[in-house]
Write a structure and sequence with these properties.
Elements: H1 3-14, H2 28-41, E1 47-56, E2 61-72, E3 75-80, E4 90-92, E5 104-109, E6 116-120, E7 134-136, E8 141-143
Antiparallel strand pairs: 1-2, 1-8, 2-3, 3-7, 4-5, 5-6, 6-7
């Protein structure tokens, strides 16, 4: 198993609930290596724009425009302002209000794609997510040109 494969295995283990290292930051060198690999898989610009239309893989229009791509230890995510998201096509995954502080509210598209949408509520150590912004993994979306965003 090469170094990159080992890092992906480590990330998988750390993102499993109950892990003693649950979502802990990687070492600086590991972080640099994995973030470069995530960047290499992107087919969309790191810098945002106001024009790109995003759709779920089922064809539901979910957003227009984006601010940037955030690349952290656990993946690359498209960052959206609240007004860039089509709130009519997403809902909270779980009902009610969390009974403890959370880092994000898990939302999902109401279509068959069930795109995971993060509404950021807290700061994390492993990525530069901003409170109040929305995040979606690029592999879950296509653009108006049916372009895949993550290979």
């Amino acid at each position: 198993m090469n170094q990159l494969q080992q890092l992906y295995q480590k990330i998988k283990e750390r993102s499993t609930k109950g892990s003693p290292f649950f979502y802990q930051s990687l070492s600086p060198l590991e972080s640099q290596i994995i973030r470069q690999d995530y960047k290499n898989h992107l087919t969309i610009s790191i810098e945002g724009n106001k024009l790109t239309k995003f759709y779920t893989n089922s064809g539901t229009h979910i957003a227009i425009g984006y601010e940037r791509i955030v690349i952290g230890d656990y993946g690359a995510y498209i960052e959206f302002l609240p007004q860039q998201i089509n709130h009519n096509v997403i809902k909270n995954k779980f009902e009610g209000v969390p009974n403890k502080p959370v880092k994000y509210i898990w939302k999902e598209s109401i279509d068959s794609s069930k795109v995971k949408v993060y509404e950021q509520k807290g700061i994390v150590s492993y990525a530069d997510y901003k409170i109040g912004m929305y995040y979606i993994h690029p592999s879950e979306l296509i653009t108006n040109d049916n372009e895949f965003l993550y290979t």
